[in-house]
Write a structure and sequence with these properties.
By secondary structure, the chain is an all-beta fold. It contains no helices and 11 strands. The strands form 2 sheets. Strands 2, 4, 5, 6, 9, 10 and 11 form a 7-stranded mixed β-sheet that branches. It has a 4-stranded antiparallel β-sheet with strand order 1-3-8-7, with no helix packed on it.
Length: 119
């Protein structure tokens, strides 16, 4: 499984960005895919994810109502639309996939894309 993020950058407070994650090699029936972020000096935190079997979407409280997770029909592209960005959203954003099998679960990460919210 290979994940490649794009779309980060510098934006002013109140602005918007859309992150994209290209997904390669994910050919199993059960997985969750989404976004984490890590700000300087802080632990990595989950932002949003979607479950392949139930198609349920999760958002952290800090982004609910501002961020929207979407995907293409083939599950080869994942998007995170981020609106009304604030300085506290500044972080490296990582695309993440968790594959669940009968015997184990496996985590895959992209290389990360920097999002900076600043005036």
């Amino acid at each position: 499984v290979h994940l490649v993020e794009s779309g980060g950058g510098l934006v002013q407070p109140g602005g918007s960005l859309r992150l994209s994650c290209a997904v390669f090699g994910l050919r199993v029936d059960s997985y969750a895919i989404g976004w984490f972020r890590q700000a300087p000096g802080k632990q990595r935190e989950g932002v949003s994810c979607i479950n392949s079997s139930a198609n349920d979407t999760y958002y952290s409280e800090s982004v609910e109502g501002r961020f929207t997770l979407s995907r293409d029909d083939a599950w080869t592209r994942l998007y995170l639309q981020m609106n009304n960005l604030a300085p506290e959203d500044t972080a490296v954003y990582y695309c993440h996939a968790r594959v669940v099998t009968v015997v184990a679960s496996y985590d895959y990460w992209g290389q990360g894309t920097q999002v900076t919210v600043s005036s």
